[in-house]
Amino acid sequence: MDLGNYSSDASFYLKQVQSTSSIVVGSAENLKTTITTEIGKIEACIGAVIFDENESFAELNNLISEVEALSLNQDIEDAIKNLDDVSESSKDNDSASITFNIAYGVLNFICFMGLALLAIAVTKSHLDPGEANPMQSCIRCTTLLLAFFLISISWLFLVSSTTGALVTGDFCQDPQQYTTEYFDNNEVVQFYATCEGSNTIMDAIILGEIYLFESAKLLSDSIESANVQPGDVCATVIDEARSKILTSGYSVKTSLDAAIGLAECETINSIYVDAVYNSLCDDVNRSLQFVMIGLLIYTVNFVICIFVWRLMVAQAEAEQPLIQRQINPHNSSAYMVRKTAASGAY
């Protein structure tokens, strides 16, 4: 799995926390409606007021306020946005890297074959004992351009591989620091990268559970205050009301538990650890391999260019007497004597 997929997974869990928070708020609102309806039935049956809505709903309103704030939390929004940006950027870079490697391989093969064919052409043109081949200048210019292009793309591949290895290596010296700096010291990211400090998400959800428990306690005391004897007609009404309220309250508790499971540090930190140590920092070794491959290709291509260049120089030296005879036929024998003497001196 690459860095882009890890970032998408972390972003997904944070989005799920926000989504689950909205579900908790909706469930809590439904619980308030259920309480109002069922307590109304009990009060109508016993002919007395047993429930102080303002006092009992204060805890549920606190729960709604705490959990609802998660969907508007700026740190969570920024973390999701940055993670999505990392995911998109990583996928674009992977696509560009694949395209570059394929293009480089094709261009390198074309240049290599071109140099090989030009080397053959240079050699063949040298075998002609007649007048100078008019295509030789074109062959030489093409060879020089092709050699320059081959060396350039080999150098580009080597530089890009080395740069990637250096950048990744610097990051892997202290991943947590670089991660924190990249995300602008985002508290949510800091917590999930280190599992240390305050977790805004978890604190809000746990506080929501406390408010739910306090609300349930107040509600239970209110129902018990009805003081209905078993077998009384209102006892059935109370039992039915209690069952419906418990069912609605259980829905809120289940949603809160789901949010806790999503917000636990281990959930997202495990993704972070895999992304850094099993993907990104593991790519350092791969980058070093590309550096060695790039260096090898650069060296081979450089040697090939030198070989072709030496062929061209050797051909030029061999053709010099022919060119001299064409320019000054009367001095060609003297030139050959000087050439032979010069060769003997070495």
Walkthrough of the structure:
This protein has 346 residues and is mainly α. 86% of the residues lie in helices and 0% in strands. It is rod-shaped, with a radius of gyration of 40 Å. It starts with a helix and ends with a helix.
Key descriptive features of the protein:
346 residues; 0% strand; 86% helix; mainly alpha; 11 helices
Task: Give the helices and strands, then pairings.
Elements: H1 3-46, H2 53-68, H3 74-126, H4 136-173, H5 175-182, H6 187-194, H7 200-224, H8 233-263, H9 265-280, H10 283-327, H11 332-345
Helix pairs in contact: 1-2, 1-3, 1-8, 1-9, 2-7, 3-4, 3-10, 4-10, 6-9, 7-8
Helix content: over 70%
Oligomerization category of the chains in this entry: single chain
**Total beta-strand segments:** 0
- Approximately how much beta-strand content do the residues carry? under 5%
Structural class: mainly alpha
What does the radius of gyration come to? 40 Å
Q: Low-confidence parts, pLDDT < 50 over ≥5 residues?
A: 127-132, 334-339, 341-346
- Measure the end-to-end span: 64 Å
Mean pLDDT, as a whole number? 76
What is the overall silhouette? rod-shaped
Q: What is the succession of H and E elements?
A: HHHHHHHHHHH
Please work out how many helical segments DSSP would assign.
11
Largest sheet: none
